[in-house]
Design brief:
Distance between the termini: 93 Å
Helix content: 40-55%
Largest sheet: 6 strands, antiparallel
Structural class: alpha+beta
Mean pLDDT: 75
Length: about 575
Amino acid sequence: MSTPGRLGDFEIVDEIGRGGFGVVYRAAQVSLDRPVAVKVLYRHLIHTQEQITRFEREARAAARLDHPALVSVYAWGEAAGDFFIAQRLIGSGRTLADELKELRESGQPPKGHFRRMAEVCARVAEGLQHAHERGIVHRDVKPSNILLDEHAQPCLGDFGLAKVEDGLELSRTGDFAGSPYYMSPEQADSRRGSIGAQSDIYSLGVTLYEMLTLTQPFQGTTSHEIVRRILSEEPARPARLEPRVPPDLETICLKAMEKTAARRYATAGELAADLQAYLDGEPIAAVPISTTRRVMRAARRHREPIMLAALGVLVVCGGWWASMRLRQSQGDTNVADAGRVVQESRADDLLQLQTQMAERIQEAASRPEEVMRLSAQQQAATQFYDDSYKWAQQQLNGIRSNDEVSKVATGFATGGLAGGLQGLQSVFAGRQVSDERDSVLAELERRLKLVNSGMPEAQSPATTPTAAAPPPASGAPKALHVPSPLTSLPCVLSADGSDWLWISGFCQALVPLSLVAPPAGAPASSGLEQARGSATAPVIGTPNDGLPPLQPPRASERPEGQGTGWLPRLPW
């Protein structure tokens, strides 16, 4: 395209730059004697009536805008076959993209860089809010479309892809509506939803990401690869790429870049307000902080207004009381929910313990001494778990912070008893030093060591039932099967002339056969003698081999000091 000398009322001076739609010239408006920028569209883009209509629509859309952060349109028309738009001349044509390129080449952002970027983004967001309120969506927000004036203040221009809310779009046929690096998921995939104000918010969020990290969140060698990453990948946290990025700016940036439009800022004005809050040292809306923290931070920054507000102390106290009641109610609910999580964790742990011990006892069935040791160990471990869960529940009931309750409940849900105790340890470690705190932490440390060291052993020999003491195993024991309605795998262990009944149904134990009587009216030990002579074991479950079941022990043979049931007290 050759440089025209004059277009209507505009005298062309020199070329500023070129884009996908045309060439931008520096010019002078003769009638008003003022400098302007004239955008001349490529002729091959304007050769049908439909394209001419699109061009006029773009000009009208931009002319409806009047905001310091937006490039104003003065006039549009056609001269000598060239269609042009005359707009406000912004500085020397320098853009935010040029500034970011220089920063990348320098290798390190200067002092005050992040505050400067927040100011630029806030101003552009205010301009977008102005456009959105008038039904205009930009759809191509990116650093190269943000011009910088002589005072380095940003102005958003190039509404070449603008969408007017009456349904008329100005976009290139067959091309993406927007630059791939900065397009929103709904621009990349129409199935994600319609393109609206949230699309501009997303693109501005990507621009802020590049301003903070000097790199784009999604890169690729082709447009389709970039689009795929936009749709399927999450951006890396800005602080991972640039550790000096302020946390609040990172939070604002990532909220604006949410893949779901409904999770982004509702309006560009809300984005601008959060950026301004960061600049003013105020809490930002995107940060989930407690009411107490919000009040305390505001108090430090606004001491004088708070002193004047002392006249409304009654209103403040009433609101505080209502807030505390609400938080207390929510806290009680959270503690109850956490209690259910603790009970579920206890049931899972005990079931796992019983399963593991049953397998180990079954494997050691031929070694009576090992069976008794494992039974006693299971009893001690079960008692320890019961006691630890009751103690942990008591500590949890005394916690009122929703965050702390959630932390402890998460520990139990994901790590069982060990995870829950670690959650309590984290909560109490963050509290002020006191005797009670130190006592709880010491007890937590003790219980965690027991849990992490493996299965707790029996505390003393007294925990082992005397009636279940196995005989010396000088010879290899012999297993014989005996029918019984109480066991799923009944058998008799015979060693050194003594017989021991092995029960592994509702419990695991060894019981001397001298304590078990044969059925009434049957010959002495008839069932046992028949079992000893049996070559095959009965089917596990209800006896079906015709052998009579075992009977309660003879009163004269009931061991002294044992329970009153038909078997001695068994390790559980």
